[in-house]
């Protein structure tokens, strides 16, 4: 048994977006046969710190995701976001009212299970196993963070407004985990967040929980920059994750 569900499948809030404005600086490269958004630190020099980015349903090639990865790259990380949607993210279907979202998500989960392990292996081979690897996930990508913080080689993990999590995801956690949460979240409601915290305490895990009032699921990646509280929460979440990873990568 996987334990009680804490974060359900992505709901309507997961499929709404405000597209951000900016010029992405990274490149799209292929790793293990999968298109991967690659954001490098200034000057292109790759240091010791790497973030693996697990996207929400809009994918890593959506401009919001690219700009967020660029932010961490500007602050010294190599950031790699694999497109486990293989060019078929929800962004292409968001205006189709007849689109079967749940069937699409199941298909993408199945494909991710195939694509992700060899991609991770290829990344570690390409950049070296001695690097300080961290991982971050949004919504659909949240479970992949929880899988990796149970390994020995990841340095730390973080997620924001996750989906598809159960109690067992929070058990046997070996590495530090940051939870960036919205006050208003039907997918990962307050009762689930508190239960997740209880389990992390029971497990004696190293964790940090942010909770932003007055914002909803999706704020950290798709918040409206024209709404003051959403802009602040989005930026503070990104900065908090950066600080979290820097702390453990020292």
Explain what the structure shows:
The longest helix is centred in the middle third of the chain and has 27 residues, at 101-127. The model has no long low-confidence stretch (mean pLDDT 95). This protein has helices spanning 63-74, 101-127, 142-148, 190-202, 219-222, 228-249, and strands at residues 5-7, 27-31, 34-39, 49-54, 78-82, 132-139, 154-162, 165-166, 177-184, 207-216. The chain has 250 residues and is of the alpha/beta class. The strands form 2 sheets. It has an 8-stranded mixed sheet with strand order 2-3-5-4-6-7-9-10, sandwiched between helices. It has a two-stranded antiparallel sheet with strand order 1-8. It is built from 6 helices and 10 strands.
Strand order, main sheet: write it out: 2-3-5-4-6-7-9-10
Unreliable residue stretches: none
Write down the Rg: 17 Å
Strand content: 15-25%
Provide mean pLDDT, rounded: 95
Specify the structural class.
alpha/beta
The number of helical elements comes to: 6
Largest sheet, if any?
Answer: 8 strands, mixed
Number of strand elements: 10
Q: What series of H and E elements makes up the topology?
A: EEEEHEHEHEEEHEHH
Shape: globular
Terminal CA distance: 38 Å
Roughly how much helix do the residues carry, as a percent range?
A: 25-40%
């Amino acid at each position: 048994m996987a334990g009680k569900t804490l974060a359900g499948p992505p709901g309507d809030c997961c499929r709404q977006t405000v597209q951000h404005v900016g010029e992405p600086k990274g490149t799209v490269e292929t790793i293990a046969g999968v298109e991967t958004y690659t954001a490098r630190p200034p000057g292109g020099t790759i240091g010791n710190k790497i973030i693996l980015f697990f996207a929400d349903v809009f994918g890593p090639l959506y401009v919001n995701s690219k700009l967020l990865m660029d932010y961490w790259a500007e602050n010294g990380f190599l950031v790699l976001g694999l497109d486990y949607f293989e060019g078929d993210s929800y962004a292409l279907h968001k205006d189709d009212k007849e689109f079967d979202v749940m069937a699409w998500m199941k298909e993408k989960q199945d494909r991710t299970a195939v694509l992700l392990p060899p991609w991770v292996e290829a990344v570690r081979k390409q950049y070296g196993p001695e690097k300080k690897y961290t991982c971050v996930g949004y919504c659909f990508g949240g479970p992949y963070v929880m899988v990796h913080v149970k390994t020995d080689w990841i340095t730390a993990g973080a997620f924001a407004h996750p989906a598809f999590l159960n109690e067992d995801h929070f058990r046997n956690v070996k590495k530090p985990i940051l939870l960036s949460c919205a006050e208003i979240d039907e997918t990962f409601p307050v009762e689930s967040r508190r239960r997740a915290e209880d389990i992390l305490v029971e497990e004696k895990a190293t964790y940090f929980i942010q909770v932003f009032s007055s914002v909803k699921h999706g704020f950290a990646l798709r918040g409206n920059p024209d709404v003051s509280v959403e802009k602040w929460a989005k930026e503070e979440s990104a900065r908090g994750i950066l600080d979290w990873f820097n702390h453990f990568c020292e």
